[in-house]
Amino acid sequence: MSTNKKIILLLLLTGVLSSSAFFFFPEAKALGYSRVLALAFAVVLTQLLAVWYFLSSLGTFKKGLRIAYYLASAGIFAFSFSQFVLPLAIFVTITSTLIANALVVVPYLLGGLLMYAGMYKFARLLEVHYLWRSIPFVLVFSLATTGAAIILPHPTIPLPERTFDLIFGTVAWSDALILSTTILAYRIRQTIGSVYKNALSWFAAGAGVLTLAIFHEFSIKIFFESSWYVGDVSVWIFILTGIVFLKAGMAFKEAGRQVLQLPANASYIDTVIGVAQLVSKPADIDTELDKVRAITAREGSATKHLSPSDEAVLRDVYLRIENYLTTNEPLHAFTKEGLRAGLPDGFLKSLS
């Protein structure tokens, strides 16, 4: 089944499960919160599905990348938990102000921190050197954003000033961290190998939509608290966030399944280029690929019969890339047998 069909099927299932708010929760119906509760369920379910796809795809990856995605997935899970605040308020009478504030603050406090930590770990694995990978810089940026959210004038809202500072300062802190995560993920996407680009593109898009979602939440809760929009459909952008992260999880799972895929009757050049695409840090094998470029730069060399010396160079390049993938590849665990299982018979025989 194609990815798009899976997403449509999962969204239909999410819609059916979320609609249970209209039928099985009389407390919410009595308060007129059935629609809001259904939307909250949809947000939670889409984000939890995304987390499941991320975590279920890690079996073929190395420990460092697994840790990075455990952290990022924990951050997404924390944000999904924030959507439980409304259901809890409906079904549970919380008399402690401290507990009530913690239910609002902690998911935002942890969500942004964990997601950034995951992407920071990812960047370190690939040795991506970038301003947004600097912890001091991101910390100063986040604290400055928090301070601005607290200090800037805002309309009078029915909250004590200290409570406002705690809640909206934390939301601003989280949004700054998610924005940092978005920028760092996009930077990694620019440097990573082609097999992983689609997954990183969708993850960066998901983090970007989440950045907008949190800013959207921050703005409407301050400036439009009494509007019908807040109570009815303001969580739509969180649903979009869940959908994009779900797509990212599926793309990442697909990247984890990558094996050497070559066209029928693949040439020596096709074979070497195909195995090179499995490398997550193309810069590490750029010197070897220069040898391939020197051969393909000759007019017609990609289609004509290669000379024995050219074939020998390409075999040597393949063996060096194979050695890199099985010993130094930072993300994916490859074996010599697994790689050679996808080689054309003629090329495979030539290696021995």
Please explain how this structure is put together.
- It contains 16 helices and no strands.
- It has 352 residues and is mostly helical.
- Helix 3 (34-56) runs parallel beside helix 11.
- The protein is elongated and about 80 Å long.
- The two termini are 39 Å apart.
Proportion of strand residues: under 5%
Radius of gyration, taken over Cα atoms and rounded to an integer in Å = 25 Å
Mean of residue pLDDT?
A: 82
Low-confidence stretches: none
Compressed to H and E, one letter per element, the order equals HHHHHHHHHHHHHHHH
Q: Report the helical percentage.
A: over 70%
Distance between the termini: 39 Å
Helix count equals 16
Shape: elongated
Structural class: mainly alpha
Counted beta strands: 0
Largest sheet data: none
Describe the structure using short key phrases.
mainly alpha; 16 helices; 73% helix; 0% strand
Quick rundown:
With 352 residues, the protein is mainly α.
Provide the fold topology.
Layout lengths: L2 H16 L7 H6 L2 H23 L6 H20 L2 H7 L5 H29 L9 H17 L9 H31 L2 H30 L4 H5 L3 H21 L11 H9 L9 H11 L11 H20 L8 H5 L4 H7 L1
Helix pairs in contact: 1-3, 3-4, 3-11, 4-6, 6-8, 7-8, 8-9, 9-11, 12-14, 13-14
